[in-house]
Amino acid sequence: MKRPRVLIADDHRIVAEGLRGLLEPEFELVGVVEDGRALLGAAETLRPDVIVADISMPLLNGIEAVRQIKKTHCDIKVVFLTMHPNVTYAASAFEAGASGYVLKHSAPAELVTAIQRALNGKTYVTPLIAGEFLQFYKAHPNQLSNESGKLTQRQREVLQLLAEGHSAKDIAVVLDISARTVEFHKYRIMDNLGITTVAELVQYAIRHGIAGQ
């Protein structure tokens, strides 16, 4: 019987190797990538059945990467494995198209369960935040769409790279645009969010899971 194909995205090599040992008995591990942009390319070329991804990754965070992958490959299932117990992160993950949300300090069997549920078209939220997650959804039914709609996809990409400390010139190379265009996006981001300093930009990016702490 053909085993489901799994792609791992995590910038901590020790974590990735631990996942390899955990998942290989039941799944075919097709690759490991260490940043969000590499995840975009690997998803396109490897076409896994399931992606197990961290949220906080360099160059492009997991949520934004999954949001882009889902636009063209809606059949690929995604389970987030993250250190963030924040329900707003979990809500953003599901809004982007995830099927599961597991914490890194959860029991290993939870991740296997989440992957299996994803493959069966179901969702999984770690019991550690499930109750709080449900309460959040009931209290903020429209918050996610309103928040994600403040910035375009390109603006979120620029914001993460700015928050990571990259210069406009470096960002231009990563995104294959001009430095002048980067500065334009920076201006638009700050204007849209009512932010006046780079420090506030960084705080916003971290608070909304766009860039890691």
Secondary-structure element series: EHEHEHEHEHEHHHHHH
* Spatial strand sequence of the major β-sheet: 2-1-3-4-5-6
Overall residue-averaged pLDDT value: 89
Q: How many strand segments? A: 6
Strand content: 5-15%
- Helix and strand content put the structural class at alpha/beta
Tell me the Rg in angstroms.
Answer: 17 Å
Give the overall silhouette: globular
Poorly predicted parts: none
The N- to C-terminal Cα distance equals 42 Å
Brief write-up:
With 213 residues, the protein is of the alpha/beta class. Helix 1 links the parallel strand 1 and strand 2.
Descriptive overview:
The chain is α/β, with parallel strands linked by helices and 213 residues long. 55% of the residues lie in helices and 13% in strands. It is built from eleven helices and six strands. It has a six-stranded parallel sheet, sandwiched between helices. Helix 2 runs parallel beside helix 3 (62-72). The longest helix has 15 residues, at 179-193. The N and C termini lie far apart (42 Å). The model has no long low-confidence stretch (mean pLDDT 89).
List keywords for this structure.
single chain, 213 residues, six-stranded parallel β-sheet, 11 helices, 55% helix, 13% strand
